Amino acid sequence: MFRSRTGLMALALLAGALLSTHARGAGALAVGACGAYGYAIDFVDVRQASAAALKRCQGKNCSVVVTMKRSCAALAIDAGNACGAHGYAGAKSLARAQNIALQHCYKYGGKDCVIRAFVCDGKH
């Protein structure tokens, strides 16, 4: 009898942990001028995450460019000119988000593009 209760309690705790992880799986990336950025992860919904990312972006002209639900985002800038070309992307994997962000940075004129920021929300 003791073993059954312990097993049920463990199962209940595991279920609660899984539900709370999925319930708080929203994030956002905001980007501004000259490499400024802000991000937010582990929010209940995208609206809250977006507001938090904008608040954390410490530059001019910040706007939310990627929202996430158990996925990743990346920002690439030109290392030689932070106020020049940049690129950003969201994807299910971090590697994919970084790759696309770098491609966009080069596409828009970057000469020495590097990843400036990356973030994953949820189980990534």
Q: What structural category characterises the helix and strand content?
A: alpha+beta
Oligomer type: single chain
Shape: flat
Strand line-up in the sheet with most strands: 2-1-3
Number of helical segments with 4 or more residues: 3
Mean pLDDT: 85
Give the strand content. 35-45%
Count of structural domains = 1
Helical content stands at 25-40%
Radius of gyration: 18 Å
Q: Distance N terminus to C terminus?
A: 38 Å
Total beta-strand segments: 6
What does the model show?
The N and C termini lie far apart (38 Å). β1 (26-31) and β2 form a beta hairpin. The model is unreliable at 1-22 (pLDDT under 50). This protein has one domain (23-120). It has a 3-stranded antiparallel β-sheet, covered by helices on one side. It has a 3-stranded antiparallel β-sheet with strand order 5-4-6, covered by helices on one side. It contains 3 helices and 6 strands, in the order αββαβββαβ. The chain is α+β, with helices and mostly antiparallel strands and 124 residues long.
SSE blueprint and pairings:
Layout: H1 2-23, E1 26-31, E2 37-43, H2 46-56, E3 63-69, E4 72-78, E5 81-91, H3 94-107, E6 113-120
Antiparallel strand pairs: 1-2, 1-3, 4-5, 4-6
Key terms for this structure?
three-stranded antiparallel sheet; 124 residues; 38% helix; alpha+beta; 3 helices; disordered N terminus
